[in-house]
Amino acid sequence: MDLKLNDKTALVTGATAGIGLAIARTLAREGAAVAITGRDPGKLDAAAGHIRAAVPGAVVTSVVADLADAAGAAAVVRAVPDVDVLVNNLGYYEGKPFTDITDDDWMRMFDVNVMSGVRLARHYFPRLLAKNWGRVVFISSEVGAFTPPDMIHYGVSKSAQLAVSRGLAELTRGTGVTVNSVLPAATRSDGIVDYLRQTAPRAGMTDAEIEAHFFATYRPSSLIARMIDADEVAAMVALLASPLGAATNGAAVRVEGGSYRSIL
Q: For 163, which DSSP code?
């Protein structure tokens, strides 16, 4: 299927690995020129090289920036002043007992997971409205819909993303701009594998056994009973970014294997 992105420019934040890299690669494969951000110049160069190798002829721009503060956002918009598609993917998670979550923990979680997208949207969103076409996609999480007790600050940050996304969508009425959120579940990456190893009930378990234990114990509602592949999330983002996704606006689109039990 041609997603009609050949003349589009996309910015994907936090794109040196995992979901962000998969999204950037998929958009490049669909013909979009992509700009990617990251804090580590070496990892950013490697990600750009990976995209160019996977998609010969891809147009890739790399921007070194820490989007946890306003200075990082300013650096990005200086380097890439206009885009057609903004994918706010940057984010992190951590498990921590509620009483151990400090004020600094809360503020950093919001700065990285919420304010990074808010700052970029504040710049790009009016420009998209002015040209009457554009896409903003927030990569939230299944836990934006239900707050996990072992990472409350993370869950709250992901719920906040959903609120920002829906609020912006309300401002697009009658235009060619859409704003949506995507809600993945646990997505396979080096980071999540390391995290799941911490949940292992006994030493010596294989990664496959640890994954099966995680879904049996912590996500028994999952209908696919496995981790999501980053390319599966990227495929949904590419559709939402496409002109073919124009009828989806203000939505929280689930790519979480049915783990969230709801008919909506």
A: H
For helices 230-241 and 18-29, what crossing angle results, to 10°? 50
Tell me, yes or no, if 218 is annotated catalytic.
no
The tokens for 79 are 């380097």
Element (H, E) at 249: none
Q: Token match 């160069």: residue?
A: 45
Q: Which residues contact 122 (CB under 8 A, 6 or more apart)?
A: none
Residue of 92, 93, 124, 154 with catalytic role: 154
Q: How far apart are CA 136 and CA 146, in angstroms?
A: 23
Q: Provide the token pair at 173.
A: 């009425």
pLDDT given at position 2: 94
How far apart CA 130 and CA 136 sit, in angstroms, is: 14
Residues 67-78 pLDDT 10s: 999 999 999 999
Which residues is 138 bridged to in the sheet? 88, 181
* Strand 134-139, strand 85-88: pairing: parallel
Sequence-separated (6 or more) residues with CB below 8 Å from residue 213: 199, 200, 201, 205
Task: Determine the residue type at 188.
Answer: R
Beta bridge partners of 126: none
Asked whether the beta carbons of 140 and 182 are under 8 A apart, the reply is: yes
Residue keyed to tokens 């980071």: 191
Read off the pTM. Answer: 0.94
Span 119-166, pLDDT tens digits? 999 999 999 999 999 999 999 999 999 999 999 999 999 999 999 999
* CA of residue 167 relative to chain centroid, distance: 18
Q: What is the DSSP string of 74-117?
A: HHHHHH----SEEEE---------GGG--HHHHHHHHIIIIIHH
